Amino acid sequence: MSVQNVLDLIKEKNIEWVDFRFVGLSGKAQHISVPASEVEEETFENGVAFDGSSIHGFRGIEESDMVMMPDIETAYVDPFTAHATLVIMCNIHTPDGERYDRDPRAIAQKAEEFLQTTGVGTTAYFAPESEFFIFDDVRYETGMNKSFFEVDSEEAAWNTGRKEEGGNLGNKIPVKGGYVPVAPVDTQQDIRSEMCRLLAETGLRIERHHHEVATAGQAEINFRFDTLTKTADNLLKYKYIVANTARQYGKVATFMPKPLFGDNGSGMHVHSSIFNGDTPLFYEKGGYANLSEMAIHYIGGILYHAPALIAITNPSTNSFKRLVPGYEAPVNLVFSKGNRSAAVRIPIAAVTPKGCRVEFRTPDSTANPYLAFAAMLMAGLDGIKKKIDPRALGYGPFDKNIYEMSDEDKAEIRSVPGTLDEALDALEADNDFLLEGGVFTKDFIDNYVDFKRGEAKSVSIRIHPHEYALYFDC
């Protein structure tokens, strides 16, 4: 697509506003809307100015001027706005035209560029499976004298006795009983189908959708893989469309990893592979799960660096409420074919050579996708470069249900960090693999760790409601 193509699209679709978007450190999209009548060829050459000091984790107030440089390949028409709006993702530059090294999208692009310099391959492909909940009601508050949350769903197991429905219609989903039931148990077929329609309308190739395991409206939609940065762009689009479609139905969607106690959380299982041109490099017929030695070493890099990696792929305190045994959470740092109890799984059902891939099951959707995918690629490339063999390091393969192993056998298996602070400690101790090729910088990592430690502290110093149940009558 050329700039002229975009200008022609603005006229053809009677676009009133052009929404220039970028992504901050947290992974949330930010935007500035410009009247379409003011968007000219020079807009794409000079960019759109914004205040970087107002974005957490970006710039100080003394160096606040920054520029969004539009990426015209990302343009799509917003399906929700009353006034016709064209959305375009942007890269962040400094006023002197330099690429901003704290821009997550720039880091993703540098990771792709670094891959091409290694001689390993030309392209890395990524495909996230980002799960979410659709609730009917959500309430929460935290203050000096109160702290609570409450969510509700017409599907929830706790509503079998509710009268407010005008006659309870039953068919509630039991705890851990929500995997792919049909209607009337699954009440959200139409809302997921509408999400998929809009995702396809805005350029995503949809593979499937279904109800997920947990009660209270857990769902998953899978879209087609793409290159690293494009997939991160697609994931932001995916979350935007899921959230706003839910809102149109009078509901609310959340990608929070663990919104409910006692049932499965929402992960973001990430599939990845490396190609050289059109040739898949992870496939070798007859190898373990038909994996090449390159793929095995890629897995070795992921698992070896996993404690540090998890600070980026699971960057919230809530992430570690999901990463506990017993809820299909991938807490074991091992690899296996088809085994969902392992942190790294190799899908083996209906897989072709080009579909041969590695699935890292630990991440969740609080991750900034540009940073998470870039960090995964850098860990995998380090494994390939150093020929890190996960078999020699005791990372598997484990082809049995790890949850059912004896405590003695489990003691030999490394687990994920137990808290966000532990993961950040690991990142501080192990980040050289991220610095290769200048993909991540020391400044970025230091700033990121400080930013996330602030989040962890804000949670740790607050009084938890369950502490009243435990200690009020001490």
Automatic annotation (TrEMBL):
<dbReference type="Pfam" id="PF00120">
    <property type="entry name" value="Gln-synt_C"/>
</dbReference>
<feature type="domain" description="GS beta-grasp">
    <location>
        <begin position="13"/>
        <end position="97"/>
    </location>
</feature>
<keyword id="KW-0547">Nucleotide-binding</keyword>
<comment type="similarity">
    <text>Belongs to the glutamine synthetase family.</text>
</comment>
<dbReference type="InterPro" id="IPR004809">
    <property type="entry name" value="Gln_synth_I"/>
</dbReference>
<keyword id="KW-0963">Cytoplasm</keyword>
<dbReference type="InterPro" id="IPR027303">
    <property type="entry name" value="Gln_synth_gly_rich_site"/>
</dbReference>
<keyword id="KW-0436">Ligase</keyword>
<dbReference type="InterPro" id="IPR008146">
    <property type="entry name" value="Gln_synth_cat_dom"/>
</dbReference>
<dbReference type="Pfam" id="PF03951">
    <property type="entry name" value="Gln-synt_N"/>
</dbReference>
<dbReference type="InterPro" id="IPR027302">
    <property type="entry name" value="Gln_synth_N_conserv_site"/>
</dbReference>
<feature type="domain" description="GS catalytic">
    <location>
        <begin position="104"/>
        <end position="474"/>
    </location>
</feature>
<dbReference type="GO" id="GO:0004356">
    <property type="term" value="F:glutamine synthetase activity"/>
</dbReference>
<keyword id="KW-0067">ATP-binding</keyword>
<dbReference type="InterPro" id="IPR036651">
    <property type="entry name" value="Gln_synt_N_sf"/>
</dbReference>
<dbReference type="InterPro" id="IPR014746">
    <property type="entry name" value="Gln_synth/guanido_kin_cat_dom"/>
</dbReference>
<protein>
    <recommendedName>
        <fullName>Glutamine synthetase</fullName>
        <ecNumber>6.3.1.2</ecNumber>
    </recommendedName>
</protein>
<dbReference type="InterPro" id="IPR008147">
    <property type="entry name" value="Gln_synt_N"/>
</dbReference>
